[in-house]
């Protein structure tokens, strides 16, 4: 078919490996369904989160040196043979104007559709949220939990009612293992084989996804936060504040004298903690806790490296678009703990936009509210190392500070 470009091969760049801890230390200063129509997920269920509006067909994205790259709005992304499907810019009508970029093969066919009506951009007073739910569990922290951070974090694991179930909600294929310093791709396909199509209908998941495209991934470039993006931030915090993990977090911090009495003031505190901009890479207002931990950044010092990027949802979406190349899991420290399709604490190696992340750890299938809660609790009441139990997993929650902000936070298998 005319206008169909086939077999564009993604370039793979080789970079020296660096450990996750070293990477993060470098950043130190030395169920109600959503009523929003933000997303519709079809054919295997991923979510395209590129920016769009009803007034234009394309969006501009800032790049280093003032360069701008244009992304199609309302675009479809497919992970079959890991192609990236983008609209042709010449407006060619053949095959509906799509071009196909072939990537590494995956086991499933993922298509992502972006609905043009993004209600999450509306003013806060026009947003619709989930109703507060009586979860049928006691959200008051016990004396034992107040005295032991590990018990409090494990309680948050129990309260994560939105956590996905392996085999029911998604499936992963870990591929082959490798040591951190080993080069080469040990995974024949994608990490995610499939994800249930209704996951991104869940309010906190959907609102989380609306935030992921708000950032320039290159460390050291100033972020410009629009009024709409601020609304998305505040709406996300409002949505997760209706869940059990955040309500428990509030009661815990209130008892410890950290959270304000007013729940509204607490939500403002959370918005500031996660979304206020700070300097990283020598440039002011170039990063935030949310961007670093969940979205990821590409460091510009010396050779390029991926920094942060510890969230499984961001990984799934970027993998579905062909921007992430999963290269295998990193051998666990303890023998007999080899990961499989049921594993929810995973240490992996991958390339993002051709830049290597030699070791990265992530909690697969957990909800956004759970991760926000555990990292917030460790920031206020823990240290740099927080050895805890999360369900069946022995975990060290690493938490690095940048002054009074979260520099980075991520799990490491103990």
Automatic annotation (TrEMBL):
Start and end residues of each EndoU domain: 145-414
Superkingdom of the source species: Eukaryota
Cofactor annotation: Mn(2+)
SUPFAM superfamilies referenced in this protein's UniProt entry, alphabetically: EndoU-like
Comp. bias (Basic and acidic residues): 15-35, 46-80, 113-127
Classification via Pfam families: XendoU
Ranges of compositional bias, category Basic residues: 103-112
Keywords in alphabetical order: Endonuclease, Hydrolase, Lyase, Manganese, Metal-binding, Nuclease, RNA-binding
Chain intervals for the UniProt region annotation (Disordered): 1-127
Matching InterPro entries: ENDOU, EndoU-like, EndoU_C
GO terms of molecular function: hydrolase activity; lyase activity; metal ion binding; RNA binding; RNA endonuclease activity
Keyword Hydrolase: yes
UniProt keyword annotation of Lyase present: yes
Subunit description: Monomer.
Protein family: Belongs to the ENDOU family.
Protein name: Poly(U)-specific endoribonuclease-B isoform X2
Source species: Sesamum indicum
Gene assigned in the entry: LOC105155979
């Amino acid at each position: 078919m005319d206008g169909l470009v086939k077999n564009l091969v993604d370039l793979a760049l080789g970079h020296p490996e660096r450990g996750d801890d070293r990477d993060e230390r470098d950043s130190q200063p030395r169920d109600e369904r959503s009523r929003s129509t933000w997303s519709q997920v079809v054919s295997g269920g991923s979510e395209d989160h590129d920016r769009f509006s009803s007034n234009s067909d394309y969006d501009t994205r800032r790049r280093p040196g003032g360069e701008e790259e244009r992304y199609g709005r309302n675009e479809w992304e497919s992970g079959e043979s890991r192609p990236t499907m983008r609209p042709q810019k010449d407006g060619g009508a053949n095959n509906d104007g799509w071009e196909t970029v072939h990537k590494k093969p995956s086991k499933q066919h993922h298509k992502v559709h972006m609905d043009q009506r993004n209600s999450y951009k509306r003013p806060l007073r026009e947003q619709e949220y989930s109703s507060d739910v009586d979860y049928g569990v006691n959200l008051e922290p016990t004396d034992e939990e107040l005295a032991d951070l590990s018990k409090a974090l494990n309680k948050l694991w129990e309260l994560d009612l939105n956590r996905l179930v392996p085999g029911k909600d998604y499936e992963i294929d870990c591929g082959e293992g490798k040591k951190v310093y080993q080069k080469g791709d040990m995974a024949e396909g994608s990490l995610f084989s499939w994800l249930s199509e209704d996951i991104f209908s869940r309010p906190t998941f959907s609102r989380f996804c609306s935030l992921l495209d708000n950032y320039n991934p290159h460390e050291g470039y100033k972020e410009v936060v629009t009024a709409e993006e601020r609304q998305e931030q505040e709406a996300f915090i409002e949505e997760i504040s209706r869940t059990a993990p955040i309500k428990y977090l509030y009661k815990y911090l209130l008892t410890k004298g950290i959270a304000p009495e007013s729940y509204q003031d607490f939500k403002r505190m959370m918005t500031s903690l996660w979304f206020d901009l700070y300097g990283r890479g020598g440039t002011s207002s170039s990063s935030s806790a949310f961007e670093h931990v969940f979205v990821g950044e590409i460091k510009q010092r010396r050779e390029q490296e991926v920094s942060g990027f510890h969230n499984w949802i961001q990984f799934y979406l970027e993998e579905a678009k062909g921007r992430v190349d999963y290269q295998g899991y990193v051998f666990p420290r303890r023998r007999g703990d080899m990961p499989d399709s049921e594993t929810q604490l995973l240490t992996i190696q991958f390339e993002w936009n051709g830049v290597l992340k030699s070791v990265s750890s992530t909690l697969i299938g957990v909800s956004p509210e759970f991760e926000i809660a555990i990292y917030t609790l460790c920031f206020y009441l823990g240290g740099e190392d927080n050895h805890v139990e999360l369900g069946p997993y022995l975990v060290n929650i690493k938490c690095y500070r940048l002054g009074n902000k979260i520099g980075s936070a991520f799990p490491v298998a103990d």
